[in-house]
Amino acid sequence: MKAIEIRRNIRLGIFVAVAILLVLLALFTIGGQNNLFAPTFPLQVEFRNVQGLQGGDRVLFSGVGIGNVTDVEIVQDTVIRVQMKIKERVRPFIKKNSTATITTDGLVGNKIVVIEPGDAASGPVDDEDFIVAKTEAGAQELINTLTASGQNVMEVTGQLKRIAQGLEEGRGTFGMLLKDDQMAASLQQAALNIQVTGRNSATITGDIRSMVNQLQRNREGLVSTLLTDTSFSRVYDQTLTNIRVTGENTAEATGDFSRFTDKLNNEEGSLNVLLADTAFANDLQRTLTNTARGTEALAEDAEALQKTFLLRGVFRRQRKQEAKAREQAQEEAQQKQ
Fold first, then answer.
1. In a domain, 56, yes or no
2. What are the pLDDT digits (tens) for 84-143?
């Protein structure tokens, strides 16, 4: 009996020892995960939406676990404060301008807080410091975005379907282009015309280039002179001035002629009497006739005087001098030739 009881007590002792070891192991494991046995410092961050984050969730720094969430507190309707407990040994790596985001551990895991490194020049954080919150789209927001995108794609697909159906039925301009052979032929002809126009434009451009090159080579031509000779501009200005003066003189002469015709049309003027009075015209005609007769008689008298013995020698010497002067003029002209 005593041997059996001793073995039973030994078994019980072993069981109790193993149980105590398991409890201690669990305590150390849980304590290690929750930083129960390591020195820590408090850190805070404020979010607009914590996406289901709760106390006990892990805090990661560049993918490494450095602490836990100790409390989630609603401060205002749009501000939720998250308090964390961070290992003291990582304090030098967390800067005052570090950022914190809430994400999911894995695809469907618990929520975690991820702290990203900041600028080294800003210095490490102190106890109870607030770091900047950085909002990232959560799973639900992504699902909502994908749903909205899917609806937009469905609407666009429906519109494309209606457009394709309209094109197939020949509705609209593009539908007519696809269905109407005559319009297609017209467009083809228009394209050919555009092509011909382009070739003609290229030819004209080449001709203009050749003309310009020729003008540059021929500096003595008329066109080159017009373009490059600065003295021609003065001649051109003088020509324009002369044309302007001529125009002014013409206008003045036209005015004078207009006034002259007005005087002609005036019945009381002497000119109108000369042109319109027949009696005066007859008198003038008789006067001119008598003058002509007197002139003929005077010429006959002068010729008779030349033949008289008193003046015959005078006129003979005069004719000799005139003949001699004509001969000298002819000789001088021949010598010049």
1. yes
2. 999 999 999 999 999 999 988 876 778 999 999 988 888 899 999 999 998 765 566 677
Beta bridge partners, 71, equal 83
Say which residue the tokens 């150390």 belong to.
28
SS3 66: strand
Instruction: Tell which phi-psi region holds residue 35, choosing left (phi > 0), alpha (psi between -120 and 50) or beta.
Output: left
Residue 266 lies in a domain: no
Paired residues of 42 in beta bridges: 85
Q: Considering only CA atoms, give the Rg of the chain.
A: 63
Helix (H) or strand (E) holding 101: strand 99-104
Q: How far apart are CA 41 and CA 36, in angstroms?
A: 12
Backbone angles phi, psi at 60, to 5 degrees: -115, 145
**Is residue 25 a part of any domain in this protein?**
yes
Q: Structure tokens of 145?
A: 């975005």
Residue 120's SS3 state is helix
- The HSE-up count of residue 200 (CA atoms within 13 Å, CB side) is 6
Count: domains in the chain = 3
- What residue spans of the chain are helical by DSSP H? 2-33, 139-169, 172-179, 181-217, 222-228, 230-265, 270-276, 278-307, 312-336
Place of tokens 């975690």: 112
Which token pair is 52? 């289901």
Asked whether residue 80 is domain-assigned, the answer is yes
Q: Which of 22, 12, 167, 45 is nearest to 112 (CA)?
A: 45
DSSP secondary structure of 33-62: HTTSSS-EEEEEEEES--TT--TT-EEEET
- 4's CB contacts (< 8 A; 6+ apart) are none
- What pTM does this model have? 0.38
Cβ of 161: how many Cβ atoms within 10 Å?
A: 10
